[in-house]
């Protein structure tokens, strides 16, 4: 999956935005279709609940529609729309601090060689590790890998300097690797008792690199 939009993709998005700003519903619908997958992944990770994520996704696009004419096409649309989604998710989190944890999406770590039981255990372990990150590190990781935003865009969304975002991401990755490695060590005996599971395919460091 590409990490950055190409120039042609950006130009296409700007054309759609300008058309939507003039009232073209087809163009707005195409914007919704284009940005929904990344936004949903981000919101689902933040809420831990599919219905809540869908509700927040709809609310995000409602806000976008209401304020679309205020958007400057010289700016990044991805940054703008994720700022809206991030704030809505933050408000939701404050109101629902006991929301259930969600399993990570499949594209966080491809564990297709493991059986279903080990697959779920590994996904749960990765989710638990992400949940333990300090808030700023967790938010930066979610925007980077679920939102597919660049460091510059994350900095704009979070209101931070780029260098600080880079530090957050570095520390988050390091912490995740440490937590998952420790968890793997504690479960070593259990893994050895399950010869059918190719544990070498789900090493913690490889999981993080695939994020």
Class by alpha and beta content: mainly alpha
What would the average pLDDT be, to the nearest integer? 75
Q: Main sheet, how many strands, which sense, barrel?
A: none
How many DSSP helices? 10
Going by CATH, the homologous superfamily of the largest domain would be Winged helix-like DNA-binding domain superfamily/Winged helix DNA-binding domain
The third-level CATH topology of the largest domain is Arc Repressor Mutant, subunit A
Question: End-to-end distance, in Å?
Answer: 11 Å
Roughly how many Å is the radius of gyration?
19 Å
Tell me roughly what share of residues is in helical segments: 55-70%
The low-confidence runs, each spanning 5 or more residues with pLDDT under 50, are: 1-6, 98-108, 188-211
Short précis:
69% of the residues lie in helices and 0% in strands. With 211 residues, it is mainly alpha-helical.
Characterization of this structure:
This protein has two domains: 89 residues, RNA polymerase sigma factor, region 2, helix turn helix motif (Rna Polymerase Sigma Factor, Chain: A, Orthogonal Bundle); 104 residues, Winged helix-like DNA-binding domain superfamily/Winged helix DNA-binding domain (Arc Repressor Mutant, subunit A), CATH 1.10.10. The N terminus and C terminus are likely disordered. Helix 2 runs antiparallel to helix 3. By secondary structure, the chain is mainly alpha-helical. The protein is built from ten helices and no strands.
Please specify the SSE layout and strand pairing.
Layout: H1 7-21, H2 25-47, H3 50-67, H4 77-95, H5 116-131, H6 135-145, H7 151-158, H8 162-186, H9 188-192, H10 204-209
Helix pairs in contact: 1-2, 2-3, 2-4, 3-4, 4-7, 5-8, 6-8, 7-8
